Amino acid sequence: MPDLTVSPEEASRICMKECRAMCCRGPIILRLDPDEVTGFYRLAADLGTEARINRTADGGGNVLFLDQERECCPMLDTATSGCRIYDRRPRVCREFPRKREPGCPLSEHITPEPEPGQTP
Q1: How many domains does the chain have?
Q2: Alpha helices in 1-120 (DSSP H)
Q3: Is the pTM of this model over 0.85?
């Protein structure tokens, strides 16, 4: 996985202020690992919100943002664009971005992975 070339604080600022957490809104599916589903439900309940999760055959789950009440991740604070469970967010969120993504200013700050056949 590529590394970010900015501090965690700067990464949060970029996500919250520059793109307003676009990776947490709209027609996106958040994939939860099997060991994350129950905790995600509990965290949502603790925050007084509902998480609609479609369970998958492997025991994991998919959170379709368009199926949620506000058409975004149920853990997103839409006023601040901050993640309400940042310290306990799912693996896929912790690892994002993995590559440069159009419209994602944070992805401009990742160390690109070497092309196939190149040594790092």
Answers
A1: 1
A2: 8-13, 37-46, 91-94
A3: no
